[in-house]
Amino acid sequence: MSAHRNRSHGTGEFEPSQFRALGEGCVFERGVMVFHPENISLGDDVYVGHQAILKGYYRNEMVIGAHTWIGQMCFFHSAGGLRVGERVGIGPGVRIITSTHAEAGRDVPVLFSPVEMAEVVIEDDCDLGVNSVILPGVRVGRGAVVGAGAVVTADVPPFAVVAGVPARVLRMRP
Question: What is the mean pLDDT of residues 13-33?
């Protein structure tokens, strides 16, 4: 195993001045951890709940729009790039993942398979329910609602209500 696999990613401690951009009125509750803040931009009045993890990456960006609410114990990983629009509600425990291990055959342990990255986009005015999971490459359209515990594996149309594992469209919002 190469030496880099055993290096710590750091403590997640951060200073506001380390962000690429940090809007006015942002709130970080106790226990929030931020990695690679130099690649993270937050708009005005973003709330980040207790023990949330914003896992920036040494490349690509995490951009979170103004007036977005991020619940406690969320995990955002932006290796493939992550864009969250404005006025988005993100319930406690939501996971947004932008990378996965590729299939490399039975002779290669999954952990050592190549990593594939794909941007996730959450458009304006969405709501992501408690403990939902958004997988790499997904776009959640404007005004969509993702139900609690849903696993979103494919794009969600604007104003759709989705739920389930995998998530499927239940109805369209009026």
Answer: 97
Q: pTM for the full model?
A: 0.93
Query: CATH code for 9-172?
Result: 2.160.10.10
DSSP for residue 102: P
Domain coordinates of the chain in residue numbers? 9-172
C-alpha to C-alpha distance for 85 and 125, rounded to whole angstroms? 7
| Active-site choice (4, 9, 36, 101) | 101
Q: What is the mean pLDDT of residues 126-132?
A: 98
Give per-residue pLDDT as tens, 28-85.
999 999 999 999 999 999 999 999 999 999 999 999 999 999 999 999 999 999 999 9
- d(CA 21, CA 64) in angstroms, rounded, equals 10
Q: What angle do CA 51, 8, 50 make, to 5 degrees?
A: 5
1-18 core/surface letters (b: 16 or more CB in 10 A; e: else): eeeeeeeeeeeeebeeee
Structure-block tokens of residue 40: 């993270």
36 belongs to the catalytic site? no
